[in-house]
Specification:
By secondary structure, the protein is mainly α. The chain has four helices and no strands. Helices cover 58% and strands 0% of the residues.
């Protein structure tokens, strides 16, 4: 059974991918650039670690859900990189998570 995108994204947030701390937005540079602060680099690494702990099928499903919501424009390989990180941040900001 395939779950709705919202369920996978809620699962991602519950799995430790909540990368917006205390409701404060992360300072980031332009798309594809290095993060603007050490805080955002730490958030990226924490999100990467949490994401990579998930089974590959769940990682791909989260990326597919982010594509479905229009937040991820990359390939859904199950790997974690800047595009996946930025897509999660964008979704969380829009969903006010």
């Amino acid at each position: 059974m395939r779950l709705h995108a919202r369920h996978f994204l809620a699962f991602a947030a519950a799995a430790g991918l909540a990368i917006l701390s205390s409701g404060a937005a992360l300072a980031q540079g332009p798309r594809g650039s290095a993060p603007a602060t050490a805080q955002s680099e730490a958030a990226y690494e924490a999100a990467r670690t949490a994401f990579e702990r998930l089974p590959e099928a769940d990682r791909k499903a989260i990326q597919e859900a982010l594509v479905w919501t229009g937040d991820h424009v990359g390939v859904t390989t199950g790997g974690f990189g800047r595009r996946t990180f930025e897509a999660i941040v964008a979704y969380q900001k829009r969903a006010q998570l």
